[in-house]
Amino acid sequence: MITKICTVSGKEFVVTQWDEEFYVKMGVPIPQLCPEERMRKRFAWRNERVLYKRKCSGTGKPILSVYSEDHSALVYDQEYYFGDDWDVLDFGRDFDFSKSFFEQFNALHEVVPKCNLIGSKNENSEYVNYAGSCKNCYLLFDADFNEDCCYCSYSFGNTSCFDCVYATKCELCYESVDIINCYEGSYLQNCKGCSNSSFLKNCIACKNCFGCVNLRQKEYYFLNESFSKEVYEEKVRSFRNKYPNDKELKSLFENFCSHQPQRYAEVYQSENSVGDYLDQTKNVDHCFSCINVENCSHVYSVKDAKNCSDLDYFGVDGLESIYNSHVIGIGGNHMVCCFHMVNGNSDMYYSMHCHNNCSDCFGCVGMNHHKYCILNKQYTKEEYEILRDKIIEHMKETGEWGEFFPIEFSPFAYNETMAQEMFPLEKEEVVNLGYRWKNEPSPQTLSQGARGFFIPNNISEVDDSILKEVLVCEVTGKQYRLVQLELDFYRTMGFSVPKLCPEQRHRERMKLRNPRELWNRGCGGCKKEIRTSFAPDRKEEVLCEKCYQEKVD
């Protein structure tokens, strides 16, 4: 085990024996940056949620894109991007050993055309990104196989769900976080198999429950107390009449939760696993939101992977031997410092936006069914291997080898990217670090001719004319509108129209999740040391697995 000091943050971090062995296997040096700074670099290249209207650089037709109109890149819509009207090899160039690799890669990356959005097989779902096989959806991000959903992130296989994050195989759910197989629920958190319930946390297989925590297979429970069906329904009705505003109910429920015992981490069916939101994992360290992951370190939001480190998103069909990379798709194998590699790619180095069945590419952008390419130039197998090894040695001399692409070269401003959500900074901090910041229009200024609209508290008082109105977020002042799909949902479920814009609602949901950090603290029951995402200064009673299971009802 080695203790290092991060060259950017000055933070002390540990390199375990497993880490050392992995770095040797991948042929990369021990990193000089702590895991958080390595992740910040990767996330600074991911614009997930900020969408712009612009024109396709190939056809001139209006499109939606993560690249704003003033961006210098050529941006194509998906049909043109994957068509036959241009050739990615036309941008190929020789490697210049008098220059750094990152300098040359950036020059290539700036001119290779970009796809407007990331996703495929979406139907009637224009406003989605990092999404696939979604139908009739609006403003979904990192989402697959959803139908009739709006304002969801990390959403998979859901139907008619709105304002949810980390939801899987749910239906008719609203304002919920980390839910699986739930039906007709609102304000649920860390729940599985619950139905016809509201304001639940850490509950499994409960139905017709309200304001409950840590319950298992219960029905007609109100604030963790059992009642008959008739009394339960009357209590819920009276409580909602007393607190008609969901904002008040949320505050009351959060206070109630803070006095209930908390499980040290959301870890299920896992062995020798340290992290949070883990399911079916084995031998993992500092991993978060992972399913079926084995022998991994510092992996975030990945499914089906083994022998990986410093990897974020998304997995499926067995990722293996990936290092310091972001958004690696189906069946990826042996990659170093890559970004957005979609399907069946292997033996790739320092490449971006490569799609189907590419292999043995170095410093390439936008490849599809290509192999033995460097900086988008085609080589023979023998030529490629000789030049690849020379470039790696060159990068070792310049200190670039093993480091992810510099934030300064990202096509996005820092506050357009997920780095701002994961590692928020003020504008002055961003500028002082040498990164870009994109100024937003003043939130107090409505569009010309528009006016703010008073939103009734009761959905029965809202007619279809609201769809034409400009709504103003009561927290940020940002303008937003409703779409017919969500208005129909609010009416069906009896929910009031939200008075916060979608982005503010997303921020508040994400705050409910614990940070992606781990601390040592004592179990509130047996006092033994536990590794948890609850910081030591938090006042909740945090229990180890054994003590928690003894207390849950």
Which helices and strands occur, and which strands form pairs?
Elements (H helix, E strand, L loop, with lengths): L1 E4 L6 E4 L1 H10 L8 H9 L8 E4 L6 E4 L9 E2 L1 H4 L19 H11 L2 E2 L3 E2 L7 E5 L7 E5 L8 E4 L5 E7 L2 E10 L2 E10 L2 E7 L5 E7 L5 E4 L2 E2 L2 H14 L3 H13 L3 E2 L3 E2 L2 E9 L2 E19 L2 E28 L2 E4 L2 E5 L2 E4 L2 E5 L2 E4 L8 E4 L2 E2 L2 H18 L19 H5 L4 H6 L38 E2 L6 E2 L3 H10 L8 H11 L6 E4 L6 E4 L9 E2 L1 H7 L2
Parallel strand pairs: 5-6, 7-8, 8-9, 9-10, 10-11, 11-12, 12-13, 13-14, 14-15, 15-16, 18-34, 19-20, 20-21, 21-22, 22-23, 22-24, 23-25, 24-26, 25-27, 27-28
Antiparallel strand pairs: 1-2, 3-4, 16-17, 28-29, 30-31, 32-33
Write up this protein:
There is one protein chain. Among the domains are: 1-33, no CATH class; 120-263; 277-407. The model has no long low-confidence stretch (mean pLDDT 94). The longest helix is centred in the C-terminal third of the chain and has 18 residues, at 381-398. It is of the alpha/beta class. The strands form eight sheets. An eleven-stranded mixed sheet has the order 7-8-9-10-11-12-13-14-15-16-17. It has twelve helices and 34 strands. The radius of gyration is 25 Å and the shape is globular.
